[in-house]
Amino acid sequence: MTKIINDYLFDESAFDYHDAAFKALIRPDTKRRALKIPAILKADKVEGGTIYYTIHAQVGETRILDGKATRTWGYNGSLLGPLIQYESGKHYHLTLVNELPEVTTWHWHGLNIPGPIEDGGPHAPVQPGESKEIEFDVHQPTMTAWLHPHPCPHTAEQVWRGLAAPVTVVNPLDNLPQLPHDWGIDDIPVIFQDRTFHDNQWDYQADYDMDGTLGDTALVNGTANAEFTVTRPWLRLRVLNGANRRELRLNTDKNIVMTQIASDGGFLPHAVPLTKIMLTTAERAELLLDLSAYKKGDQLLLKADDTVILTLTVGEFTEDNRVELPSKLKEIDRGFTGGVDHQVIMSGMDDAVKINGKLYDMTRIDDRQEIGKNEIWDVSNTNDDMPGMGMIHPFHMHGMEFLVLSRNGKEPYPNELGYKDTIAVNPGEHVRLLVEFNVAGIFMYHCHILEHEDTGMMAQIEVFDPKHPKHWNLKDLCAKNGVDSMAANMKM
Ligand code: C2O
Ligand code: CU
Ligand code: CU
Q1: Which of 1, 106, 263, 376 is 20 to 30 A off residue 157, Cα-Cα?
Q2: Nearest protein Cα to ligand 1, atom 1
Q3: Does the pLDDT value for residue 482 go beyond 80?
Q4: What is the pLDDT of residue 327?
Q5: CA dist list (Å): 121 to 6, 53, 401, 439, 443
Q6: Predicted structure pTM score
Q7: In degrees rounded to 5, what are phi and psi of residue 451?
Q8: Ligand 1 mean position to 449 CA, how many Å?
Q9: Hey, which CATH number is domain 340-489, 1.10.287.3510, 3.40.50.150, 2.60.40.420, 3.30.70.120?
Q10: 448 CA to middle of ligand 1, Å?
Q11: Which residues have beta carbons under 5 A from ligand 3 (an ion)?
């Protein structure tokens, strides 16, 4: 029998409790509401093997608490966005429409598509009132990704206002077809975020924290005090930490075993049974919950720290969807050794955050790697000068999914043995990553505490194809969009 993991794996002292600005979550004083399930985005058309989607970024109002509606931003709706489904091997054409009062971008976090335009980082702005078309192929395993804006230096504020949407890739070759896959019935998105309400409104400037903005109210899929009625004994939860800064420490009131089957980049080699899981910002986990022992009316409370974020209430089981989980979910070869090819040192907190001693510059290429080559990245966090101090920096790379080779020379945690694109790095730690790009272009790598990213804790790599050399003439749009992020965010 595999051992059940019942701690968060991470060093408790590095958790954000110590931060003077730490805001604990409170359960909102509002009636319980049905968990919102994002609709599935319908294709505009399918023509000559190409699938067409249109995604509007727009302003709206959403009823979240009792009383007044909250002014929010969303994709094809007032808050968050629809599920955007991709099938591996297919070609997509997207029309991106910006109906916001400011510039934005569409970043496909977890999709390995060319940069910097299709990938949708800061180099791919769409001006207010304009639209842009992009096209790309999807070649990836079955996985959960997401869409969020990435304009320099206003990513954090735009995500805070509500822009984020779930994305899935299905690869018929890599699928475990017997897993729950009925969206909204037994395949459930759990997009975790935290916001503070000011007379039912969000106020990013008022709540802004340079070390990452926290809110006191947990939202799941934009629902406060959410409840989901369970009608099949097996639930597949696709958990995404969509918060700007808060680490999600997910647990349940009954300490039930949740079986993690996938991380950011798809299935783990083996399922990992756990009762607690920590996800830093942008990390994803697919969890299987077996509620077959529950009776009608029984409840299971999902909590972040000590606060209930989602109530699962058992209704009538209409169908038994349990199957035997194979002992091996996916073949992953982690046997790679070699020296370090790339160093990333994440340092500082507050306004002193840097990557390799530098702030982000859109015109500078910080590193290069050849397409199709396996190279080792050593990523460290030097916030360890004082014991028990410092903070976790969640490190994210665009353009590919990496393997975690080691943490401080040791095996990574059992749920880090699959492909990932975001990895928590504790103060004082070195994490070794195996990185291979299969698409070329300019890609970001950065701390996914969104305020750190906006302050400049970000760098960019050129992935080059020697057969098709390219010359890049990169423009500085940060300056144009917002002078410097701190000044922009501190504007009152
Ligand atoms: Cu989730 Cu560079 O982004
Ligand atoms: Cu990304
Ligand atoms: Cu950081």
Answers
A1: 263
A2: 109
A3: no
A4: 87
A5: 37, 19, 16, 15, 8
A6: 0.96
A7: -70, -35
A8: 10
A9: 2.60.40.420
A10: 6
A11: 393, 447, 449, 452
